[in-house]
Every structure is written in structure tokens, then in C-alpha cells.
Amino acid sequence: MIAHWDEVPWTELEAGDMHADVQDLGRAAGTVGVGLRRMRIRPHRRATTVHRHSAEEELYYVLGGSGLVWRDGETHEVAAGDVILEPPAAAAHTLVGGEEGLDVLAFGPRLAAEVGEVPRAGIARIGATWFEASRGPGFAREAEAGPLELPDAPSPRPPTIAVAAEVEGEHKRRGSTDIVRRNLGQALGARTTAMRLLEIAPRGRSYPHHCHSAEEELFVVLAGTGNLRLGEDRIPVRAGHVIARPAGTGVAHSFWGGDETLVVIAYGPSDPRDLCYYPDSKKILVSGVNVVFRVEPVDYWDGEE
User: Fold this and answer.
1) Which domain holds residue 275?
2) Do residues 152 and 193 share a domain?
């Protein structure tokens, strides 16, 4: 499950003062429960409707350009290398391109919300609340509300926006592992998802070879070259590769640096029920209690029936 953003088609979205080109990188790589879109926002235009999510936590990484985060009438400057957290049930928000536009990766979970629809009556229900159901596109309705008003000057940046490279890193160096990892999500206050910036040394390994029972992982290679070890296969990777590792495959993965430092974003949900299996050492990590124990694989059909 691997794709390269040079090979993923772009879709142009334009309505009112919204204008951006979008790639669905998550679906191109085959993700199941997490989403990733790349947005190239045109200069002085915004990316999306002003919106907030009731449950989905969004994380953004700025690849290039500069612009503004708009939140409930306030704006904050952002530029290449910044990381942004938009918590659920918080400020309504959008992104606005600056003089050069804004190139952004948008990460988020795909959470299904149960909606009971009564199509003949044109109504629907979420929980105990009934509302009018419309199939009209959100972008068109947003455009009818007119251009977004921006304040005269940006406000100071809150703790939910940071320069990724300035987040304190942890250097892990043991055996073949040689990596600096920066826990971006934790630094910004993420609660239900995780994002880390991995800087893998030349010829070094990212993490011990592993696979997850419940947590899906999504990786984006930002810089450098190296290899993805998938099972016992080795697949060359470079900047622009997007790798999806759905939960429960039983196929382990790890990254190895090439001739230069391999820089990777790692994203996924934080699930305390997750079990992480390390086949090389035959160990299992129980995430919720941070306990590791050694196991031996067994053949379920080796006994009497």
C-alpha cells in the first residue's frame, strides 16, 4: 500500500473566495480509517469552508509557501515546516494562502457518524435531533455567505501551532536503530491521534520491525531516500512517497535510511487497546499499560480436535 504524490491526480475546487487544488493521498495509498489530503491553496484564497468537527481531530503540516490560519475571526501566520492542530468541538477554522499560496498536508481520522435519514420527508436525525436534510454542496452554500473577512493584523500564535523542527526531539540509538523522533501531536496537545517527525540517520533504522493490531499507521516521506522493509521485502522510498499500514495485517514494517537522512511524518490514531508485535524479537507491547512481554507464535491447529 504505497503511492507517490507525483502520480496522484489533482482536483480543482473553486467556489466564491475558496480556490485550491487537492490530492486524496490517503485513498491513493489505500488507507482504511485515516485520511490525508494535500492542498495547494491559491494566493489570497482559502482552502475550505469555515468548519469545525464534533469528534475528528485534524493535524496539518505545511510543506511550502506561507499564509494564515483563520480561527473564529482571528488569524495566525504559518509557513513551511509548521505543524497545526485543530481539536474537535473547538474554533471554526480554515486556511488562507499568502503571496505564494500555501501547500499543506491535512491529516485526520475517518469517523463514521450515524445519520438516520427520512428521504421522502427531507429530514434526518443525528442522535435525538432532527434537522432539514439538503443534498446541496457545502462549498456552494459557503460561497453564498460571501468572502471571509480577515482582521487587520494576525494574532500571536497559540500553542496549537509550532515549527516542527523546533519541537524537542528524542534521539534513539541502539543497535541498528538511529533516529531522532519529534512527537508533534503531543507537543501541540493532540488527544486522539498521534503525529511524529522521524529523522532516520543514513544506514540507520527507524524502529524495530513491527505491526499493530488496532492502530493504522500512515507515513509520508518528506526528504531523503531509503528503504521500507515490508515483511521481508525491501522497497526503495524517496520524498513524496505515502505508505499506508492498516491495522491487523500481521505484516511488519520498518524504515531504513539511505545515503542521506530520511525524514518521515508518521501519523495514526492513539488506541490504548492496541497490541504492537515485534517479530524479530518475538515481543508484544500492550499500549494501554506500556508493558512488553515475549511470546512464541503457535500453530492453532497443532492440537487434538
Assistant:
1) 167-294
2) no
Pair 150, 195 in one domain? no
**Residue 179's CB: how many other CB atoms inside 10 A?**
24
Q: What whole-number distance in Å separates Cα of residue 53 and Cα of residue 74?
A: 18
> Which DSSP category does 137 fall into?
-
Specify if 302 maps to a domain. no
Residues 147 and 236 in one domain: no
In this prediction the pTM is: 0.92
Based on the domain organization, do 156 and 174 belong to the same domain?
no
- Long-range contacts: 134-142, Cβ < 8 Å, 24+? 137/15, 138/49, 139/13, 139/15, 139/16, 139/18, 139/49, 140/15, 142/15, 142/16, 142/18, 142/49, 142/50
The residue assigned the cell 509557513 is: 79
Give the CATH number of the domain where residue 239 resides.
2.60.120.10
pLDDT in tens, the chain (305 residues): 899 999 999 999 999 999 999 999 999 999 999 999 999 999 999 999 999 888 899 999 999 999 999 999 999 999 999 999 999 989 999 999 999 999 999 999 998 777 777 776 888 888 778 888 776 677 888 888 899 999 999 999 999 999 999 999 999 998 889 999 999 999 999 999 999 999 999 999 999 999 999 999 999 999 999 999 999 999 999 999 999 999 999 999 999 999 999 999 999 999 999 999 999 999 999 988 989 999 887 776 665 55
- In DSSP terms, 117 is beta-bridged to 124
Within this chain, do residues 178 and 131 fall inside the same structural domain, yes or no?
Answer: no
Domain tally, the chain: 2
Of 161, 181, 212, which closes a domain? 161
Facing residues of 284 across strands? 277, 293
Of 133, 161, 189, the residue at which a domain comes to its end is 161
What does the DSSP 8-state code read for residue 7? G
Closest of 276, 254, 277, 249 to residue 264, by C-alpha = 254
Q: Where are the alpha helices (DSSP H) in the chain?
A: 25-29, 138-144, 184-188
